[in-house]
Amino acid sequence: MKLDKKNIIFAALVGVIIIALVAILTNKKDEDIADFSLSPTPTATLNTSPTDTPTAQVTASPKPGIIMEEVKGYNYWFQQLDSQNRVLGIYDECTYIIPSNVAHKNNVMVMLDNTRSTQALILKIGEKEYSLAAQEWILVTLSSPTLPINLPIFCKGIELGQIELQ
Q1: Does pTM surpass 0.70?
Q2: Where is the chain membrane-spanning (predicted)?
Q3: I need a labelling partner for 38 at 20 to 30 A (CA). Which of 3, 24, 94, 129 fits?
Q4: Other CB atoms closer than 10 Å to residue 101's CB: what's the count?
Q5: Could you tell me which of 95, 94, 125, 126 has the C-alpha nearest to residue 111?
Q6: 53 domain-assigned
Q7: Is residue 108 domain-resident?
Q8: Sequence-ordered list of residues with C-beta below 8 angstroms from that of 112, at least 6 positions apart, any chain
């Protein structure tokens, strides 16, 4: 057999194809080994029902705008929380609080209600301080990583009560 230019190119082409096939099959074999699992579920399924080609659905593009939601006011939150002793009303410029001693579950939301006062104050519950302006109320969430825990309530250096988190 004479090795002319045509035969050399043909032999090189066959060699490249063989090398490519070996590489592909070796790669596929490694993937099969990596995906091997001992689960009893079958890995191949045969679906004999014809499937329709999904059609593209046109969705409306979002339009710029403002999403408005009514902000809940004092009366709403007072009605929601008062029946559960979760409204802490501060009276007589911080001389007492109602209720003064309560127990709640961890991560409880309570209202700090200073609406009856004409003075701003700082209420300290546990280690956290809350600033309340005159005739203001705020919602706070009380939580602790260690339970149960008693959180003393202080105002102007006077202990007004405690909240036990359970």
Answers
A1: no
A2: 7-25
A3: 24
A4: 13
A5: 125
A6: no
A7: yes
A8: 88, 90, 123, 130, 132, 137, 138, 139, 140
